[in-house]
Amino acid sequence: MKKNENLDSDCPAEGMLKQLSGKWKPQIFLLALKGAVRFNGLLREINGSSKQSIATALRELEESGFLERSIISQKPLHIEYNLSPKGRSLVPVLKQLELFSGQ
After folding, report:
1. Closest by alpha carbon to 23, among 55, 68, 47, 53?
2. What does the pLDDT read at residue 3?
3. Measuring CA to CA, which residue among 19, 9, 17, 8 is closest to residue 60?
4. What is the pLDDT of residue 29?
5. 61 within 8 A of 29, measured Cβ to Cβ
6. Going by C-beta distance under 8 Å and a sequence separation of 6 or more, which residues neighbour residue 46?
7. DSSP the chain
8. C-beta separation of 66 from 94 below 8 A
């Protein structure tokens, strides 16, 4: 058994941080705080990102329950991502982390 194997399964905070970690997930989460985000908008906003990396990050954030996907049936059809209730519940926690890291 690895040294930290038990810690991973026993620490909910560590699991949550792993779900939010990744190359573009924090940036996507930050942009979603401001309102609905769209795939092409994220590609424009996040310098250095690629279609594959944004698609993967969006899928993982949705699977983790931090984002909700909405299909807007206007012409043209498009998809928006918004923070889910679970994602919004993390905002105060992340703001506290931000304040703590600024000290």
Report:
1. 53
2. 44
3. 19
4. 93
5. yes
6. 24, 27, 28, 31, 54
7. --TTHHHHHH-HHHHHHHHH-SSSHHHHHHHHHTS-B-HHHHHHHSTT--HHHHHHHHHHHHHTTSEEEEEE-SSSPEEEEEE-HHHHHTHHHHHHHHHHHT-
8. no
Structure tokens at 30: 């930050």
- Rounded Cα gap, residues 32 and 13, in angstroms: 21
pLDDT digits (tens, 9 = 90+) for 19-34: 888 889 999 999 999 9
Distance of alpha carbon 27 from alpha carbon 69, whole angstroms: 17
Cβ atoms of 60 and 22 within 8 Å: the answer is yes
Round to whole Å and give the CA distance between 74 and 29: 25
